[in-house]
Amino acid sequence: MTRYKLNDPELTRRRFINMAMGTTATVGVVSLLGTLGGAHPVFRLTEDKKPPMEGDILVHADEAKEGVPITMADLSDTQVTAWPMGTDADGNQIIRKGEPNNLLALYKFASGELGGEANVEAAIDGQVVAYSDICTHAGCPVPDAKDGTGMFCPCHSGQYDPKQGGIVVGGPPPHKLAQLPIVADGDNIKVAGFFLTHPYPYTEDASWEAAKEAAKGA
Length: 218
Ligand code: FES
Description:
By secondary structure, the chain is of the alpha+beta class. The protein contains three helices and eleven strands, in the order ααβββββββββββα.
């Protein structure tokens, strides 16, 4: 039976057509993936969508003061939200809020209060610390708890402790908030490097490492 099929000119013609169609479809899929890959945000980051970059100044995210540089005097153990602000190729200042996941939370704790899993070397004077303010569970912004017990995510009751490095102390978040290294620059606060662990929406260190490389080359 097989021998007849192989020798049947009609079947051979059909097989050729099927192969040609399959090849066309494969080329189409590869081409589409190439187009999607080229359009992937990681590989086409505009300045406003880049993650916080070394040298960025932190500015207020609060609507009433948005874009105003945050000073040390603005900070306390109550959360201040911030955006990173960088410059484009022409030297124009760009607030990186085109990526909502760039929202940050800043705190200044009394000397000796910051500890646990916090990297005190990446905090100013071991007291001023910056975290991603985006919940690692499903991406909601995380304000302070109303009762003063750390940070509380209103979406599914996730709880974090900013004094202990943003560790999870309640609810469903899978991992701690990512700490962003910062340094003082006069009265301003500057970003000193990438997040120390992967922030939301990155689901693993490897994907965050790839995003960092893409941001450097973007
Ligand atoms: S998004 Fe924060 S706990 Fe679910």
